[in-house]
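Entry: Sugar ABC transporter permease
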Amino acid sequence: MNRTAFTRARFIIGFLAVPVLLYLVYVISPYAQAFSIAMTDWRGVNAEPGFVGAANFRRLLDDNVFWTAVRHNGLLLVLMPLGTLVIALFFAFLLNAGGPRGVSGVRGARFYRVVFFFPQVLAVAIVAVLFQQVFRPDESGMLNAPLMALGLEPVGFLSDPGVAFWSILGVLIWQAVGFYVVLFSAGMASIPRDLYEAAQIDGATRGRLFFRVTLPLLWDTVQVGWIYLGIAALDVFAIVWVMTAEHGGPDHSTTVMAAEIYRNAFQYFKFGYASAMGVVLFFFTVAFAVVALRLSRRERVEF
């Protein structure tokens, strides 16, 4: 190794040493501890953990509540990214190519982006409390008040087991859409207008402009959004915990894996069992990311 290469390697190692050390201490180390705790029956800081091997994982196989939570996370994994990305792409395309000629943004597009982005500046707990009021089953509920004024029965958005999950899904999509509208708008703004004009000269409609020009050139951004939303769907916690009765009810109709991990750890003090759930969630998340990257891989379109 010549002197220049050695100096460069020493600089890179010195530059990365502290970030890598912090990552090992604050990210990798907790994961390793979770794996080790999952093999014990530890019940708290003052209790002596006993090694139980894979007993916690075997218990998971017969835990109906946990598998209900897994099913809910699976539904969110499909529906939350799909709903969010479709709505965000629709509005972003309108903002950037919805002008009178189809190649320019609508008037006031910057203002609309701010309005769409507004939910992102709210804390998740605040969003949950706000929608608790929106979904109230009486005259003070924003959605039920018009129904009751028309003489209809109020809907138990958070109290009906058949409706509660879909109400939570709607809130999650509402909260996420704004960020992706802004993200996709930024991506669409970088697409040369010449491509749209050439397509229009060839007789392309707005639909063809979107599917033949916009979406292929925006695919890398959509792929990242899909993976990020999928991981967020697997990690859903605060909205469910704050909004719903019994923190995942009624009758476990809205519970998710993160809620069950928290419940077992900090309400039942079954830290070993909760860690086993966390390990399962970790592998679900990694598996999703790998599969999503492989399935969404395609030839990059240059412009």
